[in-house]
Design brief:
The chain has 87 residues and is α+β, with helices and mostly antiparallel strands. The protein has one domain: 2-Layer Sandwich (YaeB-like fold), CATH 3.30.2310.20. Helix content is 39%, strand content 32%. It is built from four helices and five strands. The chain has a five-stranded mixed beta sheet with strand order 1-5-4-3-2. The longest helix is centred in the first third of the chain and has 13 residues. The radius of gyration is 12 Å and the shape is globular. The N and C termini lie far apart (33 Å).
Length: 87
């Protein structure tokens, strides 16, 4: 059974500001994780959320196995994303 990918408003705003090719790569990679998100997303150490690498960008998400939902909360360049998480 597939998981549903749900994008937070901040994640959508970030996607809209990215070049079209980068936006497509991120969207395609997230879509490919629908079947088994735990295969693609890795848990962040000391946190409840997960990260997905897409080139120089990182997708931060929460995975809810009960609802079978991946909630994308943050997308940013690898240089900034962890600072924005408050690490």
């Amino acid at each position: 059974m597939t998981y549903e990918i749900v994008y937070d408003e901040k994640a959508i705003e970030t996607l809209e500001g990215l070049p079209k090719e980068t936006r497509k790569r991120i969207f395609d990679k997230c879509s490919s994780a629908k079947e088994n998100p735990h295969r693609f997303f890795k848990r962040l150490e000391g946190r409840e959320d997960y990260r997905l690498k897409v080139g120089d960008y990182r997708v931060i998400a929460n995975i809810d196995d009960n609802l079978r939902q991946v909630g994308v909360t943050l997308i940013d360049h690898r240089k900034r994303v962890y600072k924005r998480l408050g690490r």
